[in-house]
Automatic annotation (TrEMBL):
Organism: Clonostachys solani
Protein name, per record: Rhodopsin domain-containing protein
UniProt xrefs under InterPro entries: Rhodopsin_dom_fungi, SAT4-like
Residue ranges annotated for the Rhodopsin domain, each copy included: 35-285
Transmembrane segments: 17-39, 51-71, 112-135, 147-170, 190-216, 228-250, 262-286
GO CC entries: membrane
Chain spans, region Disordered: 337-373
Recorded family membership: Belongs to the SAT4 family.
Residue spans of biased composition, Basic and acidic residues class: 350-360
Classification via PANTHER family: INTEGRAL MEMBRANE PROTEIN, PTH11-LIKE INTEGRAL MEMBRANE PROTEIN (AFU_ORTHOLOGUE AFUA_5G11245)
Membrane topology: Multi-pass membrane protein
Length: 389
């Protein structure tokens, strides 16, 4: 009966904050996985095996915190109902007994919590699977790195399956539960949750230490060293989150605290950090092959546009020159001057000023037309086709 008090202890932070935080983290994870999938398709035309593992891991994470949220709401409503029926107001009070008609629903929710822990354990392994495969591919120059990565992958999977089976064996899923089954199931599920957290912590530490001897000996530019430092700082953050998660699981096992939302939040955050680290090569590929190329194309297009804009007045003036020559009337031809033609069409080179004098006012229309034709021939001469009147 002492385990019943756990129903009212899950109040370290509000459920709305819990679901909002986990949803935001899952959205970030979804964006990161989308970028990784784009990079994989651009590179080889399909997705890697670890791309699918990341998608499955994110689905497990979402299922974990959604099930936890719904379960906590049911626990809270049930606890308040029981305490109201028993006339107890203290949330930490231990009820003397539980009505028989409420016992089965409580055990059913406890069974759902065991299923939630199982999904959480699987999400921890699937989100770290791509990171282990990534290390095996990147550092295959050293044969011992792939061996350790694959060995750790298989060992962590077997341990996760064993923990899940051991916890589930204590929770009889057939028929109606009794108090003996409940008292055995709850401690085992909490212990299995703690064991899974310890396994995840060991995996994080190994993944952090494994590439260090190789990276330290690399002769790379300073900027790339900064990038490696950021990646390893993120790895340290993942280790810290794993330690915090193990602490809360240990508190729940000892009965000192049982806020499931805190431990599940650590599971989600740990999984998102693993996804972040597993997608690092995809960020670099997108930056080098998509963003930089897009910037180069944009700069080239801007240069072409600027070149066309500088040539546009000459082209417009030339078109105006030709259309005007064939459509002007006699009066317009007399009133126009040679200087107007030269400004519009003639390149700025030295020319005979004697040929650009305006016609006399007493000049006839026929003389003016012949003068205009001569000016046009002079203009053609600057284009290299004729340089004589």
């Amino acid at each position: 009966m002492e385990a019943f008090i756990a129903l009212g202890n899950d109040a370290y932070f509000d459920s709305t904050v819990f679901i909002a935080t986990c949803s935001a983290l899952s959205a970030i994870g979804g964006v990161l996985i989308a970028l990784r999938c784009v990079a994989s398709v651009k590179q080889i035309g399909r997705l890697y095996l670890d791309d699918y593992a990341m998608i499955v891991g994110l689905a497990f994470l979402i299922a974990t915190f959604v099930m936890t949220h719904l379960l906590e709401r049911s626990y809270d409503q049930m606890y308040k109902k029981v305490m109201s029926l028993l006339g107890l107001e203290s949330k930490r009070a231990l009820p003397p007994s539980v009505p028989d008609y409420l016992f089965d629903p409580i055990l059913e929710m406890d069974r759902i919590w065991v299923a939630t822990i199982t999904v959480a354990n699987l999400s921890t392994w699937t989100t770290k699977l791509p990171l282990m495969l990534l290390l095996a591919r990147l550092f295959s120059v050293k044969p011992w790195v792939p061996w350790i990565s694959y060995g750790m992958l298989v060992a962590s999977l077997l341990v996760t399956i064993a923990i899940t089976a051991w916890s589930g064996a204590a929770c009889d899923m057939r028929g109606q539960w009794d108090t003996d089954v409940a008292e055995t199931c709850s401690p085992r599920s909490a212990l299995g949750h703690l064991a899974s957290g310890i396994v995840g912590l060991i995996v994080d530490v190994v993944l952090f230490i494994l590439p260090l001897p190789i990276i330290i000996r690399l002769n790379v530019p300073f900027k790339r060293k900064i990038g490696y430092a950021i990646v390893f700082a993120t790895g340290i953050l993942g280790i810290v989150v794993s330690i915090v998660g193990c602490y809360w699981r240990r508190q729940a096992l000892s009965g000192k605290a049982s806020d499931r939302k805190v431990s599940i939040l650590c599971v989600v955050l740990e999984g998102i950090i693993a996804i972040l680290l597993g997608c690092v090569p995809a960020y670099y590929y997108i930056y080098r092959n998509i963003i930089i190329k897009a910037n180069k194309f944009s700069n080239a297009a801007s240069g072409i546009t600027a070149t066309k804009s500088t040539r546009k007045p000459t082209s417009t003036a030339r078109h105006s020159h030709m259309s005007r020559r064939y459509t002007t009337t006699a009066d317009e031809t007399i009133n126009s001057t040679q200087g107007d033609w030269i400004k519009m069409d003639t390149p700025p080179v030295s020319r005979d000023r004697s040929r650009t004098r305006e016609p006399e006012p007493s000049m006839s229309i026929e003389t003016a037309r012949s003068s205009t034709d001569r000016d046009h021939i002079i203009h053609i001469g600057y284009d290299g086709r004729s340089n004589r009147a």
